[in-house]
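Let us work through a complete example step by step.
Step 1: write down the sequence.
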Amino acid sequence: MERRDEIDNILISVKAKETTEREWEFLNGFNSPMFNAINIAKALLESRSAFDDVSESLDLISNPE
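Step 2: predict the structure and record it as tokens.
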């Protein structure tokens, strides 16, 4: 499992909020090395899209320059 600060840094770099405590606790339940920080950040953004406008962040993370 990736470290929380790595995931938060990716989210911040695409203008998104850091992981919440609830999100982090949920992610710790998976604890799998097959998930890298980028994939975790994308999954968090996709789940947040039901509540927040994260379209810009999703675009940035999906199309890095």
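Step 3: interpret the result. The helical segments are 4-13, 21-28, 37-48, 55-62.
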